[in-house]
Amino acid sequence: MASLMILKSLKKQRSFSSLSPITSSISRFVSTLILGEHEGGQLKQSSLCAVAAAGAISADNSISLLLAGSGPSLQQAASHAASIHPSISQVLVADSDKLSHPLAEPWAELVRLVQQKGRYSHIIAASSSFGKNTLPRAAALLDVSPITDVIEISGPQLFVRPIYAGNALSTVRYTGVDPCLLTIRSTSFPVPHISSDSKSDAAPVSQVDLSTFSEDILDKSRYLKLTSQDTERPDLGSARIVVTGGRGLKSAENFKLMEKLAEKLGAAVGATRAAVDAGFVPNELQVGQTGKIVAPELYMAFGVSGAIQHLAGMRDSKVIVAVNKDADSPIFQVADYGLVADLFDVIPELLEKLPEKK
Ligand SMILES: Cc1cc2nc3c(=O)[nH]c(=O)nc-3n(C[C@H](O)[C@H](O)[C@H](O)COP(=O)(O)OP(=O)(O)OC[C@H]3O[C@@H](n4cnc5c(N)ncnc54)[C@H](O)[C@@H]3O)c2cc1C
């Protein structure tokens, strides 16, 4: 521990000496590496939220975005990322077949390699399956302790994160050595709208030198296949409206009612763990402590009791509507609008009254 402390103070002196004049630890140089996720040649919204989070660390933050993969879609994503947000200072691209799938082990090694050169003070990933999988492994390789699920950033070393399934908030001060590794909840760092006029020139894009990339780690995991649903509905994590069904739907067949409702509202479909465990829907739709965290403008819950683990994933929604036939269901304690009724009466009526989606 003592050696860690000494290392930290030495490191600070080193970084201060490059910045003159030296004032206090608050003014130390802040630079952040963001682990970017991309799909179909576009940077994912959750990575943009990570950029917003980096902006909260310090106004002077120098932000580098790291993208990996192979082929034209990577280069397309790099051009997209370079011009999408004025606070991105540079885009780093690791183009290699070894990184063509977002596997945590090679990505962790990539982060170690990039950190060796860039000496960032912070490394951020969104709290997605990818970020939750990769960042702790990168932290282990860099010998630091990550801080996960951050929802508020009060300075370069001060972070707020929920604990006890969101029932308490813990403020954490990072006292370790650089870099400070964070996963952030995208719903807590919305990206402000950027008008096309306010965008500055595109950030420079440079290739990461992978000549010293260690291959030892590659046999630790193997990519088999990706299964995803082909849907035009919005992504659950970033949808403006979410309609969620619980065990009260009773069957996979009945769950189609939720899909019809989502269709009419332009919403994403969510589910409770009970509905997932009963096989009504795949587990990628699960909302909650062990599922996705959502905070849409409108969250509609049908046949959902409101267990604490479910609330952990949706309680930050702006407006919550609940339909449940049991007036004592805990979901009504968080609902802005509650209807004690049978969902099999309510949903068909809603479907009838809602206009067709244009
Ligand atoms: C470690 C751990 C992690 C967990 N993580 C999650 C998680 O991420 N997400 C999650 O959701 N759960 C999670 N759970 C499970 C959680 O505790 C609950 O069991 C689950 O959320 C209950 O789902 P439900 O509300 O669909 O089912 P139930 O609790 O069975 O509630 C069904 C509700 O439907 C109502 N209902 C029934 N019929 C009708 C009808 N016709 N019309 C209207 N209402 C009707 C009933 O009144 C009831 O309130 C976790 C549990 C543990 C232990």
UniProtKB/TrEMBL annotation:
Q: Matching CDD domains, A to Z?
A: ETF_alpha
Q: Does the keyword Ribonucleoprotein apply?
A: no
UniProt xrefs under PROSITE patterns: ETF_ALPHA (PS00696)
Principal localisation? mitochondrion
Q: Does the keyword Transport apply?
A: yes
Please describe the quaternary structure of this protein.
Heterodimer of an alpha and a beta subunit.
Name the record gives this protein: Electron transfer flavoprotein subunit alpha
